[in-house]
Amino acid sequence: MGISKGFAVVLSVLAATGCASRAQPLPDVGRTPLALESADGSAVALDHLWRDRTATVLVFWSGGCPCVRRYQDRVDSLLDRFPADQVRIAGISSNAGESFADVLRVAKERGVRIPIFRDEGGEVAAVVGVHSTPTVVVLDGSGHVRFRGWIDNERLPGDPKREPWLEHAVQGLIEHRDFAARTPIYGCAISRSLLGPSPGHCCHEQH
Length: 207
Fold this sequence. Notes:
By secondary structure, the chain is an alpha+beta fold. It has a single domain (29-205), classed as Glutaredoxin. It is built from 7 helices and 10 strands. The protein has a 5-stranded mixed beta sheet with strand order 5-4-3-7-8. It has a 3-stranded antiparallel beta sheet with strand order 6-9-10. The chain has a two-stranded antiparallel ribbon with strand order 1-2. The longest helix has 11 residues, at 100-110. The two termini are 17 Å apart. 36% of the residues are buried.
């Protein structure tokens, strides 16, 4: 699945009916106390991830989503591209249809390098307006959401037609320059309950 050549970066969200809706401002996570669970079972306040970094990249992650698997190397490579003292990169597991134990097991089997945290109940995903994996959200050092979208336009690194949306956002925060705040989003729907869609139904445009 690829994004068509003429598909421009959009700044508005499309409604599920396909009709355009008015763009909503990106949220301020810094005003909302949120907690995650780490791999060792301890609670981690979300602000501990972003307070000491110029940019914090949250990659919404699912073991059953083929889009997540396809992007694994590109996500892991960000650890080498950006200095760890400026940029933190973390996976966020919000899917009610997967246990955190299963998510961690799959990540270990695949050799995933980024740490993954559990967003039980999908609270973090809801606050930042994420509905699918592997949507990425970039927070600045004040907890403001500065970017929400996809990693790139489905072109492999090295392809001259690749648009590295996420990398531009992170580099823009570091260098204090402009970048697109929203991009098209594709992926697997995040289920909010065990009755919701299961991971792996991919990769449709998400809204």
